[in-house]
Design the sequence.
């Protein structure tokens, strides 16, 4: 069992930046990703990174968000720049590996216009 704890969410004005962090209770394997869910909408992929370093971004965040991971520190980060009101959501960290699927509890990001 792995626990994932997110931090770094908050309230920011449009155009601002936030950096989300996710710390795992155990060494991270497989694919680490960030997802988000806005009120009334389905949870969606924001960005993920495979164990080999291959990244995948939602079109809506390309060029603005950057995912990174530090396996030694058991962390995965999401640098979010030029935030927009439509980025407002609860952001979740996810780890998928060896058939297991773990989620964090989420952190709220609110972007005002």
Sequence:
């Amino acid at each position: 069992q792995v626990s994932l704890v997110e931090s770094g969410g908050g309230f920011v004005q449009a155009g601002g930046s936030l950096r989300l962090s996710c710390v795992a209770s155990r060494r991270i394997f497989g694919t680490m990703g960030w997802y988000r869910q806005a009120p009334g909408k389905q949870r969606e992929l924001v960005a993920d990174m495979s164990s080999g370093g291959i990244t995948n971004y939602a079109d809506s965040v390309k060029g603005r968000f950057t995912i990174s991971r530090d396996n030694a520190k058991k962390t995965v980060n999401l640098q979010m720049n030029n935030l927009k009101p439509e980025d407002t959501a609860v952001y979740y960290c996810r780890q998928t590996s060896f058939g297991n699927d773990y989620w964090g509890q989420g952190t709220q990001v609110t972007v005002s216009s």
User: Anything to note?
Assistant: The two ends are 40 Å apart (CA to CA). The chain has a mean pLDDT of 96.
